[in-house]
Specification:
homodimer, 652 residues, alpha/beta, Rossmann fold, 3 domains, five-stranded parallel sheet, 26 helices, elongated
């Protein structure tokens, strides 16, 4: 019989030693949740630390990420090699596996980067959805695991956390369990300063299985974890805890959260808890208990390997989990480009065409949409994943965009599926914190947005992005695509599905885009920008445009040609990819003639491609409410205006 | 006795006529909520359409903003001159008061811009807090009004809406009432596609007074509104409604939301509802009932004017509600600059100094903080506004940043107070949708952010902004300040408090900033950028920097001086203000020498101030976890590196 209390105390002292050694850190969580964590690992978790990437492992998320030493202590004690003593002793230092907040390193058992509050549990919902979908696809022999999330009160105050609670209950994600740290202490002091709601009642209202218990009572925690596994609903263990428990000076106090520890605190904790081991030392019997616990955790591992080796779908399962594309992917890409509509068509609908085709050609795609099925049209070839039917590849996420973004991260981090996130571009602001996390974690989520400009029309300026493109172009490791037509839309999908470490955003139009009149034999969007056919030889002016405005530039070129002015039109679907091209190609495309930049958005950032004295045709303020064509004229984003600016640059 | 049913039907037909005339619009809300709205206006609302800006009017918010014709019909029937028949007949057209979604025009009775779901009810929480604070300050004789918010299911799915529910219950905002439109229909179809939670139970868990009723039963609505007014808790009227009620073809259907209306729909509705008036025609008895209702609504108006005329605090009340600064404001500004710390000090602490001083000098400031009292230090001279004590000027908003941003908007829109929003800059991504609304509405909220760069240190990249400055510089009508020291911090506050139509963001440091060594006699930040003392005459190179990096530029100047290189240092606390200066001043400051831009952030956008061939010292990717000084060295943001780049530009 393992001594779970000592296992818990081992967590406590590793956390204390790690924080003391670093001179900073948050002791509140690891000391307050030690019994909960130890009981989970001792008797319930499924994991194989020797094979951290085992696809059927349980996923553990530390949503209260400031308590990172809880996770690091756990992973060290559980035997993850990458969380060595050296890693603990370099906590919060450059290059350490043990960063201030957990940062995704799955080979070390760190499943996801947490950080800003609330996102962890929202990612956990994505992980649980991924498990449900994969379980339905490949069966319980290959996929049958749980998602456990450590949660602080802050995560549950955040809106994204509330969205997570609501949708997880709706989808009856029975393999998802939140372990909440109800310590009544927040950074400002007592949680009563800012929250007085009945949290268990709130979860019950959302259809959760809720158990309230003492988070330091190991038997109670053990029973509650067992009950959680038996219940078909997602489970909340609402654990009443004492923050920083074991530190006589700080436990139950506001300072328990992260007040600097002193060596004397450790001495007092040793006396309080009957601990005599030295710094970073784990007594041998406790190590043995941890080893035994992890042996139990890996019980199923060998059987799984046998089942996997004999499974008919093994090759496809391995392909999905590895993230590799199907063998005939190049053919799929060519076909998508060849089939792209050549009549005027909204790029969001062209994107729907691709999404439809990929329902079969890339069945690991999982589409998430925020209550905009009809206007975004990405469900055609798919059916919904619901509480009753996990086989669908489309999730009705409701009007919960921030959650949907975090679920995208969670699904991508889980592995096995390619998440595609669909809503209007104005809501990219709601999703931004999660999209930033995708960029930071180097997860290849695809974020498809419709209604990308004043083209939205009369719904007005609240729904018309003018600065959102720039706001994402400013973000590291994010590709912003604004395709000009159906071919570029297909190309953006193709490139994004091939991406392994960079998320992408597609800014697509509600209104019809005109085809840019080239064939799709080669994916030209891979170069980020390219000169459109229709111009050869020397040029007097270069028109740089993106998205639906490329058609205006083409029209302006014709107007200018009538006057003998030779204009080249450059379509720039993805600045980031263009930036990666060799300088000679960039110079060739940009040319040396004066330039007019054209985009129905703010100029901010365009200076990268325009020299002083060049012109820009776009927005200078928020939009307005009227029909699309009226707005384009009102804001002066027209072929005539482009031609006029070009003439101006040439002094004509 | 007024005929409320006919008043409701008048709303219905005005909405139908407005939508038919425009050829587009959302009929679901106005037809589904007509009885609720008519009963509110007939028997409960306090308003004086002849004086739309009456400070003690009830505030009405349409959070489900797509149903804007509900609000426009109401305002027209209630007698707001600006919502004329002509305005209704230009619905969704440029320049009309009746834009696609409500856009703030308080003289027309439109209290706030709604738009993206969830923000309206969050703004309403801000309005109710403003009322509570002003009521405590000036007493019920001057301030005693309610906030009513029409709410759709989408608003309650959004995280920001959930945050609003939680905090409103905690603060016991008894004068806040949500009128919810529970029609079971969402854009995708039945709400059961994406939500199955027990919404009334969720509100009860948060301490709300909840009544469930038939939203078409006028007597029930009337009784519930009366009970809501009597209860000390915020109230939810959970109204079961039929979407698009009155339109036989569409009522209760998914298409009820916004499917295009046909003339025949109107004919069928006339038959269904026994209505015979022509298009845009309101039968005289119904007009009379509306007039009588609004006479009741304005019952208190005359008394209030008398009380106001006789009130001792009248002058101060008028000053607060007009948004005017105190007469001695210029003196206050000088004093703040003169008292600014000249020793090294974190700019977030310098901001706290200003905030402390303004607790007395500008008592209409109301500070909102998201559970970061200690690290942001803006509570010193203030006490908390709580459920029991409304006299405080500091609100513990909990870990609910998006709500806090929207509350800032709501408080500013309410009038009478100057909201100041305080948290870490990383959370600006959570607040972004609300901050965008402040810019769009031209509301002067001040958003104070600490931890503005890799200076955050070992909490790591999740908490280290690198692209957030650029993302707000891209936004229209927003001022981004990044002060270099205590004087610039005081200046940024001074400028922001003087602003009437432009919100501002202060990006402030956790780590000590060095003083830029000038006196504060003149507010130089008003120019947006200026040359620091310490250089005269010709220059070989110009170093442009912001925030804590200005000190590095000063240090680099000294290094370069040793080599005989003459460097000028330009501090650029606010690009937007610099952009507004006359070209001659800008040219003088920027000079013609080569330039090095310095900012611990991405280069994106800096091309505005740098020519090709100029250099930039800053970030090229996300940050990392280690101590501040280690990170600055690691990422090469040092005086040595700046000097090196300067030398490189000069070919030395």
């Amino acid at each position: 019989m393992t001594d779970i209390q000592s296992m818990a105390n081992a967590i406590r002292f590793l956390a204390i030693d790690t924080i003391l050694n670093a001179g900073e850190g948050h002791q509140g969580v690891p000391l307050g949740m030690a019994e909960i964590a130890a009981t989970l690992y001792a008797n319930h978790l499924k994991a194989a630390p020797a094979d951290p990437l085992w696809p059927d492992r349980d996923r553990v998320v530390l949503s209260n990420g400031h308590g990172s030493t809880l996770l690091y202590s756990l992973l060290h004690l559980a035997g993850y090699d990458a969380v060595s003593l050296d890693a603990l002793q370099t906590f919060r230092r450059l290059g350490s596996t043990c960063a201030g907040h957990p940062e995704i390193e799955q080979h070390a058992g760190i499943e996801i980067t947490t950080g800003l509050l609330g996102q962890g549990i929202a990612c956990a919902v994505g992980m649980a959805v991924a498990e449900a979908r994969l379980n339905a696809e490949f069966g319980g022999d290959l996929v049958d695991h749980r998602t456990w999330a450590f949660v602080g009160d802050g995560c549950l105050q955040e809106g994204v956390g509330q969205e997570a609670v609501s949708l997880a209950g709706h989808l009856r994600l029975g393999k998802l369990t939140f372990l909440s740290d109800d310590n009544h202490i927040t950074d400002d002091g007592d949680t009563m300063l800012s929250i007085s709601e009945d949290v268990p009642a709130r979860f019950r209202a959302a259809g959760w299985h809720v158990q309230e218990l003492d988070g330091h009572d190991i038997a109670a925690v053990d029973a509650a974890l067992a009950a959680a596994k038996d219940d078909p609903r997602p489970s909340l263990l609402a654990c009443r805890t004492t923050i920083a428990r074991g530190l006589p000076r700080l436990q139950g106090q506001r300072g328990g959260h992260s007040a600097p520890l002193k060596p004397q605190d450790r001495e007092e904790a040793c006396a309080e808890l009957g601990w005599s081991a030295g710094s970073f030392e784990v007594p041998e019997p406790v190590r043995a208990d941890w080893a035994q616990a992890m042996q139990r955790a890996a019980t199923d591992y060998g059987d799984w390997q046998s089942r996997h080796a004999a499974h008919d779908d093994r090759a496809e399962f391995d392909r999905w989990t590895s993230g590799a594309l199907p063998e005939d992917w190049a053919g799929t890409g060519s076909r998508l480009r060849a089939q792209a509509a050549l009549e005027p068509r909204a790029t969001i609908l062209s994107s729907g065409d691709v999404c439809d085709a990929l329902a079969e050609a890339l069945p690991e795609t999982l589409v998430l949409c925020a209550d905009l099925e009809a206007p975004t049209n990405h469900k055609r070839g798919r059916h919904a994943l619901t509480a009753q039917d996990r086989s669908g590849s489309y999730v009705h996420c409701g009007v919960r965009e921030h959650l949907m973004g975090a679920m995208t991260d969670g699904i991508a981090a889980h592995g096995g599926l390619r998440p595609v996130n669909v809503t209007y571009l104005a809501f990219a602001d709601y999703e931004r914190p999660a999209m930033r996390m995708a960029a930071l974690m180097e997860l290849p989520g695809l974020f498809v947005f419709s209604h990308d400009s004043i083209g939205v029309g009369s719904n007005g300026p609240t729904h018309q992005p003018v600065e959102i493109l720039a706001s994402y172009r400013a973000m590291p490791n994010f590709r912003v695509f604004r395709p000009a037509d159906a071919i570029e839309t297909a190309e953006a999908w193709e490139i994004s599905m091939e991406s392994r470490r960079t998320p992408a955003l597609l800014a697509l139009s509600k209104q019809d885009a005109l085809p840019v009149r080239r064939d799709g034999a080669e994916n030209l969007s891979r170069r980020g920008a390219y000169m459109l056919p229709g111009h050869e030889g020397a040029r007097d002016v270069t028109l740089l445009a993106t998205g639906t405005e490329v058609a205006l530039a083409v029209e302006a070129r014709a107007l200018l040609a009538e006057e003998g002015i030779r204009a080249a039109v450059v379509s720039m679907p993805c600045w980031e990819l263009f930036e990666e091209q060799d300088p000679a190609y960039r110079a060739e495309v940009l040319g040396t003639a004066p330039r007019v930049g054209v985009e129905a958005a703010m100029e901010f950032g365009w200076q990268r491609w325009l020299d002083r004295g060049d012109a820009f045709v776009g927005m200078t303020d928020f939009g307005a409410s009227d029909r699309t064509e009226v707005l384009y004229r009102h804001f002066g984003i027209t072929a005539e205006r482009i031609a006029e600016e070009a003439r101006g640059l040439l002094g004509r």
